[in-house]
Write a structure and sequence with these properties.
Elements: H1 16-24, E1 31-32, H2 44-55, H3 68-81, E2 88-92, H4 94-106, E3 112-117, H5 122-129, E4 133-138, H6 147-153, E5 158-164, H7 176-188, E6 192-196, E7 219-223, E8 236-240, H8 242-253, H9 261-270, H10 276-293, E9 307-308, H11 318-327, E10 330-331, E11 333-334, E12 345-348, H12 353-371
Parallel strand pairs: 1-10, 3-4, 3-5, 5-6, 6-7
Antiparallel strand pairs: 2-8, 7-8, 9-12, 11-12
């Protein structure tokens, strides 16, 4: 390693997802089921709101906490969802920015942070960046948030429990009762509870539930990237206990400064737009893939997000299977990128119906080849 490079950067590797994207650029007409962002475009009304903001000269820094109208709109929504709770709100530079600020604000060197395995790729990297210790709780084979397993993982060094429902990469939604139990567990042990709710609007079965309903100290991260296809706009938001939010804002002042102001005006318009039709369409995509692949793969039907996390056929590892798939022109992500276990692979069904049909055909053919 170059002598100028900080030791902390050696505690984690580059995202393996980027390597798949690099490979995609070399393939001619790949069947791309690897991308973790919606395949629909940002609604025109949101684009126009951002364009109008640019033309009206709203191009400077916004206040660190975000533009007043957007914060007010989100605060009103938060107060309606969590009546009687004292929760402050600020606008972050995407939910990733919210995650970075949460870790920097709460995790000291040596502190333990508990989350499920499989996990979103950023979780262990950000914990290590702060000098913390990732504690990964095995959730195979059904990817359930099991309160008993979480309780067993708690030690005197535990600083935070991080939950993600609906989850990336599995798409699995935690049950209300399990989330409630984990919320109470965090309160009992005086441990921070961080709830990553970026896929809250991609919820297919029943109603979305946040553990903040049972634990008022929960820090919630959400945003517009997935729900409104605004992944490149970098507008997220965080709400939670005032003292924690104030600390996160202090760090934001010296790092991100603020979320892009024109994008914030677009997000304000986004709050007025229903994306229900898109969510219904994605539910249909989920149903299509689950029906097609269930006879051939061991998988858990996702209750949200837009991912499937099937097990590779037989004893074949996830990496080996993905290599076979890529040789057939199908881009999927090895499960090892999201896990300590190399047994599964991630499919994103954020794609056109035609692409899903082509992808399903390749996956079924590969499964049949394995049996043969």
């Amino acid at each position: 390693m170059h002598p100028w490079i900080a030791d902390r950067t050696a505690t984690f590797d580059s995202s393996g997802i980027r390597k798949v994207f690099d490979l995609a650029a070399k393939l001619k007409d790949p069947i791309n089921l690897s991308i973790g962002q919606p395949d629909f475009d940002v609604p025109d009304e949101i684009k126009e709101a951002a364009i109008e903001a640019i033309r009206e000269g709203r191009n400077a820094y916004s206040p660190t906490q975000g533009i007043g109208p957007l914060r007010d709109a989100i605060t009103a929504e938060v107060r309606e969802k969590f009546p009687g709770q004292e929760r402050d709100v600020f606008i972050s530079s995407g939910t990733s920015g919210g995650l970075v600020l949460s870790m920097l604000s709460m995790v000291n060197p040596g502190d333990e942070v508990i989350f499920l395995d499989p996990y979103f790729v950023m979780y262990p990297a950000l914990v290590r960046l702060c000098g913390g210790v990732p504690v990964m709780v095995d959730s195979y084979p059904d990817f359930r948030l099991n309160p008993e397993k979480i309780a067993t993982a708690i030690t005197p060094k535990t600083k935070m429990i991080l939950v993600n429902s609906p989850a990336n990469p599995t798409g699995v939604t935690a049950s209300e009762s399990d989330l409630r139990d984990v919320a109470k567990l965090a309160a009992k042990h005086n441990v921070a509870l961080l709830s990553d709710e970026i896929y809250s609007r991609f919820f297919y079965d029943g109603e979305f539930y946040s553990p903040a309903s049972d634990n008022p100290e929960t820090i919630v991260i959400d945003g517009f990237s997935k729900s409104h296809a605004m992944t490149g706009w970098r507008v997220g938001y965080v709400h939670g206990p005032p003292e924690v939010i104030s600390t996160m804002l202090k760090i934001q002042q010296y790092s991100f400064v603020c979320a892009p102001q024109p994008a914030q005006w677009g997000a304000l318009r986004a709050m007025e737009i229903s994306m229900r039709a898109n969510v219904d369409e994605y539910r249909n995509k989920r149903d299509f893939l689950v029906e097609k692949l269930s006879p051939y793969y061991e998988l858990t039907s996702p209750g949200g997000a837009f991912y499937l996390f099937p097990k590779a056929p037989g004893a074949e590892g996830g990496n080996a299977f993905v290599e076979r798939a890529i040789a057939e022109g199908l881009l999927i992500i090895p499960g090892k990128i999201f896990s300590r276990v190399d047994s599964h692979f991630r499919i994103s069904f954020a794609a056109s119906d035609e692409t899903l049909q082509r992808g399903a055909e390749v996956l079924i053919r590969l499964a049949k080849q394995h049996v043969a």
